Amino acid sequence: MRISTSATWIFLVAVALLTAQTTSASKLSSGESSTQSSEDSSQRSSGSTDTTPSPSRAQTGNGRPLKHLLVNVSGLATAGLQPLLLLLDPDGSVSDDDDAEIEIPPGVYSVESPPQSREGFGEPLSGLTDKQLARFEAGKEAFEHEFTPATGLGPVFNGQSCAECHGEPATGGASTIKGTRFRNLGSLNFAVGLVTQGSGSPHVQSRSVADEFPEQVPGCDLAPETVPDNALAQTQRVTPPLFGFGLLEAIPDSTLRKNGRQSARSESSITGRPGILLPGGINDLSQLGRLVGRIGARGFVADIFSFTQGAYRTEMGISTPHPILSLPIRPHGRATPPECRPFRGTAVPLAEVRQTVDFQRLLAPPPRGPITAEVERGEEVFSQLNCTGCHTPTLQTGNHRIEALANREVPLYSDLLLHDMGEALADRAPEGLGTNREWRTTPLWGVGGVPKQLIHDGRAGRNFTKAIELHGGEAAPSRERFHRLSTDDQKALIRFLESL
What rounded mean pLDDT belongs to the chain? Predict the structure, then answer.
């Protein structure tokens, strides 16, 4: 049964990849031209914060609804084609572009925004029953559990516990730790790499049990992983905070699909689409039928359970019972030497995964900072710039077996859809059904109080203006409007973001 299930899922992954990014070619070509016309229109304007869509875009006849139908229904065809096309890109080698200085136009307000100190991070949702609170506490203990080789860690890894990366400003948060991913011929897409593990792909595990626990693994001389010489591209990911994770998960698929359809029909330069790769319901029947991705930088995971099992695998080197994520760990793309893995058996059974999931699912959303008159003005500017076209202020959960998650407003400032963000953020390392230039809208709640660097790879540091400068593609018109704001309004916008 295990073999047939694994084979089925590997087949589904392949089909999904061959469907996702085929539409990217049409999306990128039509999206680029429409964005450019919008930018041109913006540059000719008088400098107001007018958000009226550019008329030139309405004349392009780009067939957005038909295109989205192709992307989301038969669209599994492009996700595989785009990585193949990237092989032909003469610039497709490992790049240092991410380290380039971000240029801010003269006169544009820019300041570093260290995380605000706030009370309330890491608390459970309000309205939980005593039994649910007990599950939250048991899950927190599992989340903080530190592994060693004797208890299943490794043989290569990035952290010994979930909380090692998700620990600031409280358990369940983020950190300054970054993960490194790469693609090569054996892992043209992140999801494919989870299966092939070619050269250790798709995720570098930068620590080794041989270096840190020599007394537990005598005779093991396994080196930590690094980006291999055969890498075609590499990218980094900052650690995301998990506060309010259960609320995010509880937003119905129908809401995200509806928002995607409405986005496709709009005359705005902004169009988003749902992503997917790992559906819900695997090992968690409460999420059965959940298909729209919402977790991950490209939104390719639909539920917390799959996200958690993936993290055990890619960050701690621990396989868990799953059609794909139970495959043996292959450090550097090779079989693990037996002397490097003293533990035998299942280090993290499904019962412990469920405890870890309970903690994340029952975490309260991040607390908001002080709301001043300047913050309120910044929120108005945020809307005038049409930042809300992607960073939707609130979504709503549907019916849920946990009353504290049912039919609640979720002020996450994200539509959870994939958007073309332009060349500056393209990383030539696609994952799931997100293309080279597409990213899920990052939820902004908590961004002012969590010590996480901005943008998916952290290159903007804690400078919101730098993050805005990296917004291209569909977001370019909003960026250009930001440049034309008065200094007072630019400051107010930054104060608003700091308050989230």
Answer: 83
Residue 91 has pLDDT above 60, yes or no: no
| Distance, CA of 15 to CA of 191 (rounded, Å) | 12
pLDDT at 217: 97
Q: What is the total count of domains within the chain?
A: 2
| Among the listed residues 169, 115, 111, the one whose alpha carbon sits nearest the alpha carbon of residue 449 | 115
> Is residue 257 assigned to a domain?
yes
Q: How far apart are CA 210 and CA 463, in angstroms?
A: 38
**Stated pTM of the model:** 0.83
Instruction: Decide if 363 contacts 245 (C-beta within 8 A).
Output: yes
Domain identity same for 229 and 357: yes
5/151 Cα distance (integer angstroms): 27
Tell me if 409 is assigned to some domain. Answer: no
Q: What pLDDT, on a 0 to 100 scale, did the predictor assign at position 137? A: 98
Q: Which residue is listed with tokens 């593990």?
A: 197
Q: Please write the tens of the pLDDT for every residue from 155-198.
A: 999 999 999 999 999 999 999 999 999 988 888 777 788 888 88
Q: Residue 299 belongs to what H/E stretch? A: none
Residue finishing a domain among 66, 84, 102: 84
Tell me how far apart the alpha carbons of residues 278 and 432 are, in angstroms, rounded to a whole number.
8
On whether both 17 and 137 belong to a single domain, the answer is: no
pLDDT per residue as tens digits for the range 13-35 = 444 443 333 333 333 333 333 33
Q: Is 204 inside any structural domain?
A: yes
200 and 334: one domain? yes
The answer to whether the beta carbons of residues 313 and 325 sit under 8 Å apart is: yes
Does 252 score more than 70 pLDDT? yes
What span, in angstroms and rounded, lies between the C-alpha atoms of 324 and 369? 41
Residues 55 and 144 grouped into a single domain: no
Extract the tokens encoding 452. Answer: 């996480």
Closest to 319 in 3D by CA, of 212, 432, 197: 197
DSSP 426: -
Does any domain span residue 414?
no
Among 343, 361, 379, where does a domain finish? 361
Residues spanned by the domain of 52: 2-84
List, for residues 354-382, the tens digit of each pLDDT value. 999 999 999 999 999 999 999 999 999 99
Q: What pLDDT shows up at residue 430? A: 77
What amino acid occupies position 337?
P
Q: At what angle do helices 2-20 and 78-87 cross, to 10 degrees?
A: 70
